[in-house]
Design goal:
The complex is a heterodimer of chains A (about 90) and B (about 550). Helices cover about 40% and strands about 25% of the residues of chain A. Chain A has helices at about 15-30, 50-55, 70-85; strands spanning about 1-5, 30-35, 40-45, 60-65. Chain B has helices spanning about 35-65, 65-80, 85-95, 100-115, 120-140, 165-170, 190-195, 230-250, 275-285, 295-300, 305-320, 355-360, 365-375, 395-415, 430-435, 435-440, 450-455, 475-490, 505-515, 525-535, and strands at about 1-5, 5-10, 15-20, 155-160, 175-180, 200, 215-220, 225, 265-270, 290-295, 325-330, 385, 420-425, 445, 495, 520. Classes of the chains: A alpha+beta (about 90), B alpha/beta (about 550).
Chain lengths: ~90, ~550
């Protein structure tokens, strides 16, 4: 398992459109991607409702874990995605 | 004539028959004669059909209301592919032997309840999204058509609530206005109504018996009138015609310069306190944001946001302005905008207290966060920073030194920062008197007429009993503005006005003659002011000076 932490700068947070984009990116990723909040609650990045219910706001720091498949590639893709969109 | 009050979502006037949309409670058959597997097949087929409808609505919304408004239909499509949602439906089919339509609605309600329980109003509005898609699937399964009337004359539509899907499916050419009983200003339906420019009210307690009766939707006064009296109707018609004519006339000026008949140009910027304001500024033809009130971010949240949050908002404002300059004023909490925990104790005399630059230089930890956020936002477009309540040269020098220290810090950390012009607010008599020296330190001045008036005349502007004594058109105030403009220009420093006085058409001519470079006013005041300036001719004799 590989992971990185990221502080959300998108003013909307992980909701609505940004959440939708993340779901698309996570589904395209060969590994299982999970978003973990600092309070320990987590959601699969491929589940829109679960992600939105996580209620991650701008300025919050989350841990993103990548597990299975080509983890190197998955991690790089996710890091790039978060920087570009969140 | 009967009247029901409501909250205006989109301003405007609509006159026509009221059409009350009665959505009968969906008559759903709970039980099914089919096997769970057969119901699942029906359900997935209906989902496919729903996604196709949503894709079509997405295309329509993209044309009519733009990408941001259309995005909701993309989200709806994704909700129908959500594993949790699909699993909940499957579970209901298998364990309870219910019909596919019932399972779709029940699963939707379950997740909607999850969002409804959240504290955040934005998240609570998302409950409607989930119910909306679930209902769409159920409607396909039960063969129920569009819930809104498709024929008849153009009408004002009244509905309990309206889903974005329903709003977008409406035939715009037959829709005069929109009235809903429920729905928030945040709802997608509200956003769509605004984007499409349809007059709309929410929170209106209408009577279903009003269906088909003549009605007036008055966005200016926030009310719906049924069976309007002839006199009232005539008055509203006249207002409607005027408003449409004026809106057309002003719209034509959106991309034109604010230039007098004899060729003197002045730039008109807008004041803003949020990303929405910036979008409005751009929509109203502002040439930039002349004053971004950063303290509004704090007042909205009740605390001072950190660097990342500020950066996120500033960046969005800068990107919204698409290459037009944004002037960010550093925190100006003070007399009328008290922020807890900024300068400690309650003050005897807050208007003369620890506010503006004084608070920032006292709490440098907070000031640095803000300067870093401003510098980082400047990497995304033209940005200037502006310091409020300046009275002394050393304040400007100290603030500039901190700005440069923050820039060096960001560079050392490898964080992108952009160039930032430095301006100061001229709103104390001391700054006016020191204008020559201050002009050497600053790239531009912005005259804050509201505070300059109260400090020059020593009259508290919060005290309604002093209104007669706190006159911003007092010759002393106007002479201060003239003196500031002349001193600034001698040193190549630009000067503008960002107080309420700047929007006063009666003073526009004076300001132009004083040689001011810019005026910054409320977004809605930009175009009326531009229209007035374009009608002036400075080559003709000056009117009797007001000073």
């Amino acid at each position: 398992m590989k992971q990185f932490t990221y502080t959300i700068t998108n003013p909307i947070g992980i909701h609505a459109r940004p959440a939708g984009l993340l779901v698309k990116a996570a589904k395209a990723c060969p590994s299982t991607v999970t978003v973990v909040r600092t309070d320990g609650r987590s959601a699969p990045a491929s589940g829109l409702i679960a992600l939105m219910a996580l209620c991650v706001k701008c300025g919050e720091t989350v841990t993103v874990t990548v597990e299975g498949g080509d983890e190197e590639a998955g991690l790089a893709a996710m890091e790039q995605f978060f920087q570009d969109n969140l | 004539m009967k009247t029901a009050a409501g909250k205006t979502i989109q301003n405007g006037i609509a006159i026509g028959p009221l059409r009350v949309c009665r959505r009968e409670a969906t008559q759903l058959c709970r039980t099914s004669a089919l096997t769970p597997e057969e119901e699942w097949t029906r359900f997935t087929a209906a989902c496919g059909e729903a996604r196709a409808q949503l894709a079509e609505l997405y295309g329509k919304a993209l044309d009519r209301a733009g990408r941001d408004s259309a995005a909701i239909f993309e989200i709806h499509q994704m909700l129908l592919e959500d594993d949790d949602y699909l699993e909940a439906v499957r579970d209901l089919l298998e364990t309870q032997g219910v019909s596919a339509a019932y399972a779709a609605i029940a699963a939707g309600e379950r997740f909607a309840a999850l969002f409804s329980a959240m504290e955040d109003s934005y998240m609570r509005s998302r409950a409607a999204d989930i119910e909306d898609v679930s209902r769409r699937v159920a409607d396909i399964l039960t063969g129920r058509g569009e819930p809104l009337p498709q024929e008849g004359p153009p009408a004002i539509l009244a509905a309990g609530s309206l889903t974005p899907g329903e709003a977008m499916a409406l035939d715009r050419s037959r829709l005069l206005g929109l009235v809903t009983r429920r729905g928030s200003e945040n709802s997608h339906t509200a956003i769509l109504a605004r984007a499409m420019g349809i007059p709309a009210l929410t929170g209106v307690d209408f009577d279903e018996g009003w269906d088909g009766r003549p009605a007036v939707l008055d966005g200016e006064r926030g009310c719906l009138c049924i069976d309007p009296d002839p006199d009232f109707l005539d008055a509203v018609r006249a207002r409607q015609t005027d408003a449409l004519r004026q809106a057309d006339r002003l719209r034509a000026l959106k991309d034109l310069p604010s230039v007098t008949l004899d060729g003197r140009e002045i730039r008109i910027y807008a004041n803003a306190g949020s990303v929405q304001d910036a979008a409005m500024a751009l929509d109203n033809g502002a040439q930039g944001i002349g004053l971004f009130r950063s303290e509004m971010l704090c007042l909205a949240s009740g605390s001072i946001p950190g660097e990342e949050q500020q950066f996120a908002v500033y960046r969005q404002v800068v990107e919204t302005m698409a290459g037009r300059r944004t002037v960010i004023r550093t925190l100006d909490a003070g007399a009328d905008k008290h922020l807890p925990g900024l300068c400690g104790d309650k003050e005897e005399n807050p208007a003369l207290g620890c506010r503006g630059i004084r608070a920032s230089l006292t709490r440098q930890d907070l000031f640095r966060q803000q300067l870093r956020a401003v510098l980082r936002a400047a990497a995304f477009g033209p940005v200037a920073v502006m310091f409020p309540m300046i009275a002394s040269l050393w304040e400007v020098r100290e603030a500039k030194a901190l700005l440069e220290a923050c820039r060096a810090e960001l560079e050392a950390q490898g964080v992108a920062a952009g160039p930032v012009e430095v301006g100061i607010m001229v709103e104390t008599p001391a700054a006016v008197v020191m204008a020559e020296e201050l002009a050497e330190e600053a790239d531009f001045f912005s005259i804050g007429t509201n505070d300059l008036t109260q400090y020059t005349l020593a009259a508290d502007r919060q005290n309604p009993g002093l209104e007669r004594f706190c006159d911003p058109r007092h010759p002393a105030v106007l002479r201060m503005i003239r003196h500031t403009a002349e001193a600034a220009h001698r040193h190549g420093c630009q000067v503008g006005i960002c107080g309420e006085l700047g929007a006063d058409p009666a003073l526009a001519e004076d300001f132009l003659r004083m040689g001011l470079d810019s005026l910054s006013v409320a977004p809605s005041a930009v175009l009326p002011l531009r229209e007035h300036i374009r009608s002036l001719d400075l080559s003709r004799d000056a009117k009797p000076a007001s000073q």
